[in-house]
Every structure is written in C-alpha cells, then in structure tokens.
Amino acid sequence: MDRLLADQNDVIVFDNLLTGRVENIEHHLGDPLFKFVKQDVTEYLHVGGPLDAVVHFASPASPVDYLQLPIQTLKVGSLGTHKALGLAKEKGARFLLTSTSEIYGDPLVHPQT
Ligand SMILES: NC(=O)c1ccc[n+]([C@@H]2O[C@H](COP(=O)([O-])OP(=O)(O)OC[C@H]3O[C@@H](n4cnc5c(N)ncnc54)[C@H](O)[C@@H]3O)[C@@H](O)[C@H]2O)c1
C-alpha cells in the first residue's frame, strides 16, 4: 500500500479492524489518494468509479486468531472472497488473493519450504 501510494495510485482500504489496528494506516489518513472504509468485506462492497485491481488481504492472519475466530476466518476466506471477486468482475479489475496458510494443511516439514 505504501508503494502504491508513493507511485501516485488511489488506494481504498476496506478493513473491519477485527484483528488489525488503525495505527497501521494512520500515517496515510490525510493523503487525498487514500480512503479508509471500516467495513466487513463479507458485506456488499461498493466503490464508485473505475478500479484497476482488487487485492483481497482481509483475514485473521495467525494460528492464534484462527483458533479464536474460526467462523470469521472461514467466512472472510469464502464469502469475503466472493464479494471481492464480485467487485473485481463489476469493474473488470485484476484480482489478487492471499490465502491463509491453513490451505497447506498440517505441514510435514516445519518451517515450511
Ligand atoms: N499463506 C501464508 O503463508 C500467509 C502468510 C502471511 C500472510 N498471509 C495472508 O496474507 C493476508 C494479509 O496478511 P497480513 O500479515 O497483512 O495480516 P494483517 O493482520 O496485517 O491484515 C489482515 C487484516 O484483515 C482484516 N480483516 C479480517 N477479517 C476481515 C473482514 N471480514 N473484513 C474486513 N477486514 C478484515 C484485519 O482487521 C486485518 O487488519 C492474510 O489473508 C493472511 O492470511 C498468508
């Protein structure tokens, strides 16, 4: 995100702050290129105007969080992906998803290669 803004791209962030902290993006809040929407991405995503890319990074993102928030983890990875894909389809935008590491199953080698 820092790189995208430094390169003069408009960036809109949707985050419900379930496991994130607003302090992580505080330094961008006055930037006219940057917009923060506090929203759960499993809900309908609306963006006015064109979009080049949709990047779906939203998820609890640690084994501790997965155990404490199992439903939210599954929901953002399934329904959240569905909503983000819907937005990308509507806008003809490229789509990037980062999955949780749970996709690998139980590793035979740790740390994973
Ligand atoms: N596969 C891997 O090995 C691997 C490794 C690292 C990260 N990742 C994935 O990359 C992504 C980003 O990781 P990160 O380290 O930047 O995590 P992060 O915790 O910094 O950011 C994830 C954000 O998602 C938000 N979020 C969670 N549920 C949400 C929802 N329903 N709606 C809106 N926002 C929601 C959280 O509040 C948090 O701010 C995650 O999906 C993570 O699982 C995967």
Please state how the strands of the largest beta sheet are arranged side by side.
Answer: 1-2
Q: Averaging pLDDT over every residue, what do you get? A: 94
What general outline do the C-alpha atoms trace?
globular
Record field, number of beta strands: 4
Q: What would CATH call the class?
A: Alpha Beta
Question: Could you say which structural class the secondary elements and strand pairing correspond to?
Answer: alpha/beta
Total separate domains: 1
Description of the molecule:
With 113 residues, the protein is of the alpha/beta class. The protein has a single domain (2-104), classed as Rossmann fold (3-Layer(aba) Sandwich). The protein has three helices and four strands, in the order αβββααβ. The radius of gyration is 15 Å and the shape is globular. It binds nicotinamide-adenine-dinucleotide.
Give me some keywords for this one.
two-stranded parallel sheet, single chain, alpha/beta, binds nicotinamide-adenine-dinucleotide, 113 residues, 4 strands, 29% helix
Quick structural summary:
With 113 residues, the protein is of the alpha/beta class. It is built from 3 helices and 4 strands. The two termini are 27 Å apart.
